[in-house]
Amino acid sequence: MPAQRPHYVEIAAKSVLNRVRGMPFEWSINPYRGCYHACVFCYARQTHTFLERDGITEWGSTIFVKLNAAQVLRRELAEPSWRGEEVALGTATDPYQPAEGTYRITRAILVELARAAGVSVCFSIPTIEVDLARSIEPTVAPPAQRLRALETLATAGVRAGVAIAPVLPGLTDSVEQLRAVYRAAHGAGASFAWTGVLHLEEVARESYFSFLQEHQPELVQRYEQLYGTKYAPKAYAAEIDKRARSARAGIQFEPPPTIEFEPSLVQLSLI
Ligand code: SF4
């Protein structure tokens, strides 16, 4: 947990739409770089090193704010070359972290996106176990609160769902644990839910192993075996796919009811 209020560095972005390869979306937008929550497993910590910042000590305490992001996005979406592909907002930062209360950049970006397309919202919920959630993502809203927000959006007709991610070996990966999240997501009206196994970029590796050594020392050896590289072995990922299929057996995710609303209401729904 960051010890004090973060230091915000206001910057002007030249562009905000980032091309993404190998993901189910083509572009990403990150209104901030750095994240107050400083989760122990956060792969995005690595991005701080691109700006010669320390991804361990500064990820939660030095946060870059792209002040002009919405204006730049409006220009980029108006380019004749823009083909209307899928954009994911907040792939390497929490776009609703505390800074958003002051800067309100994510809200402005959503208005720009909603003018051009529909929107869906994904909540990361690796576990619904309160104590475990508090230990791996100490300052993030508790799982029940995220589920309530999901329910509010789903009831309003916004397509919303859950990323059971990251799945943490030995901590959140049993069929029963996965099923508990699927059930909770379904109960809140989620339209989708998917799993993603932990991967450990260089900086996240350091942060996560230090968490293990302090809180789960009995798992250190197992993780050393699993994470010879930044990705878990294919066999483990396949095993999680199998467990996830078993965990969601009988749980059917449905699209939200169709409700006609003006784009401006999309913004209101998300606040
Ligand atoms: S909330 Fe997301 S971006 Fe922020 S530290 Fe946690 S995992 Fe990283």
Name its key features.
three-stranded mixed beta sheet, TIM Barrel, binds iron/sulfur cluster, 11 helices, alpha/beta, 271 residues
Architecture blueprint of SSEs:
Blueprint: E1 7-11, E2 18-19, E3 27-29, E4 32-33, H1 46-49, E5 62-66, H2 69-77, E6 87-89, H3 99-103, H4 105-116, E7 120-124, H5 130-136, H6 143-155, E8 159-167, H7 175-187, E9 192-197, H8 202-215, H9 220-226, H10 234-247, H11 263-270
The structure holds iron/sulfur cluster.
Q: What does this protein structure show overall?
A:
By secondary structure, the protein is of the alpha/beta class. It folds into 2 domains: 1-118, no CATH class; 120-254, Alpha-Beta Barrel (TIM Barrel). 39% of the residues lie in helices and 15% in strands. It is built from 11 helices and 9 strands. The protein has helices at 46-49, 69-77, 99-103, 105-116, 130-136, 143-155, 175-187, 202-215, 220-226, 234-247, 263-270, and strands at residues 7-11, 18-19, 27-29, 32-33, 62-66, 87-89, 120-124, 159-167, 192-197. A 3-stranded mixed β-sheet has the order 1-5-4, with no helix packed on it. Strand 8 (159-167), helix 7 (175-187) and strand 9 (192-197) form a beta-alpha-beta unit. Helix 2 (69-77) packs parallel to helix 4, helix 4 (105-116) runs antiparallel to helix 11 and helix 7 (175-187) crosses helix 10. The longest helix is centred in the last third of the chain and has 14 residues, at 202-215. The protein is globular, with a radius of gyration of 19 Å. The structure holds iron/sulfur cluster. Iron/sulfur cluster binds next to loops.
